[in-house]
Model the fold of this input.
Amino acid sequence: MRILGIESSCDECSAAIIEDGKILSHIIASQIPLHAKYGGVVPELASRAHIVDIVEVLRGAFKEAGITPEQIDGVAVTQGPGLIGSLLVGLEAAKAFAYVRNIPLIGVHHTEGHLLAPLIDTASGMEKPTFPFMGLVVSGGHTNLIAVRGIGQYESIGRTLDDAAGECLDKVGKMLGLPYPGGVAIDKLSVGGDPQKYDFPRALPQHDNFDFSFSGLKTSVATQLRHIGHMPEGQDLADLCASALEAVVDSLARKTIRAAKKIHAKTIVVAGGVSANRRLRQRLADDCARENLALSIPPMKLCTDNAAMIAGLGQYRLKDLVQSHAGFDAFNLQPRPSWNLV
Ligand code: KG4
Ligand code: ZN
Done:
């Protein structure tokens, strides 16, 4: 079975083709340079760029896979959550493709795609997480702790009450005059910094609280900047970055480990753009080793927004729908910009 996946929920336009758990092709057109000069994603520009990119991205996916559109058995597309204009572009492309070919159309949940990303590439030989696992989805748009007891069996354990972790790092980066996306710049600068130099707040520290809040950290960095009185450079800048990052990583790691223990999971899965962060990876690796937990972080290309995770999820959903004789999604499938998985 060959599935075409399409992802366009935010600022990555992506298409991928999966054949029975093997990724045949995977194309991502990133819009980072387009949004960088505004310091964040501009929704209207994002949807326009998707319109420009989508056909080339699809062509690229077929070229890389070495197959023709006639060889596709189903189309999976991100239905939500995300920016409505961006979602619409991918959704309409998927509908058109499925309609012309008369094959099943499957709208999937973006966060579910992230969560199951380590399971899709069955041909890679990478060790797969076993159920139940604790999923931490951490990106510019999401910070969720989700108990995964099986495909389709999710329980929300915690979520951010305000900014997502990546969004917070991006905003802190902007305050510090760093290039967009701030999370990436902070990762690099933190390497030479002292994470203990500034004691930034860790919100909601209570043992039984699994929610996150990052808006206080943002305010704290702004207050510290006013106190310093000038734009920090060199070592000062590195120390500020490392300390702010440490506050984010500390909250994420502590709560994720506690959440895993709460549901008696043996494995932690981390997905989303922030999982590229070196300090977060190191801290989780250390904590998991100490607590005897396995840590699964998919390869980088499957961590950030991508269509392979959407095609992978579509593959499971299609099998499920065929077995249960349920209907596929109709060709008037609508985008769901604010769609909670659980
Ligand atoms: O998953 P993603 O590509 O898009 C969504 O937001 O859904 O994640 C992008 C986010 C941005 O906030 C970016 O700053 C952050 O992931 N990010 C990082 C790193 N790489 C990307 N944050 C910290 N360290 C990194 N190395
Ligand atoms: Zn995402």
